[in-house]
Fold:
Amino acid sequence: MKEGDEVVPGLNRVIGAFASRGLPIFFTRDWHPADHMSFRSRGGVWPPHCVQGTPGAEFHPGLRIPSTAVIVSKGDSRDAEAYSGFQGTDLGERLHSLGVDSIFLGGLTADYCVRESTLDALGAGFSVTVLKDCTRAVNARPGDGERAFADMSRAGARFETSSELIKQLASTQQ
Ligand code: ZN
Structure:
């Protein structure tokens, strides 16, 4: 997606602020087999994307990935879709075991993976803040992005910008 790149600078600033404070950072990624059920060749709705071990599955080259970050792969079995980073993964358990209760989340896309991850995280008892400037919607149908924000809000998600979060982190450190 064309505007996907625009999320990188804000995410990098938040990642930097979290890394310098020793806060846990998790990256989730689509990690599909070449014949994944979400692909059009198998009757799904998406063109082939994020095929395991190919350049299409790599993180954006400009994204800052600290050595301490945990990478969680999802959608890695051929017959199951996983928009949410919590679906079919141990992400929830890992966060709970670190004592995490609040999640700040961004990435692609607002109307699929961010929406589903947010709803799952809320359902698992986490407090969730979506970084508004750090996500973009596919908008396969016009208005999908706005509907996704409304759904997340109704489910209890909060929204703020990366700058607001960084300001809060700076003010709580003293
Ligand atoms: Zn996918």
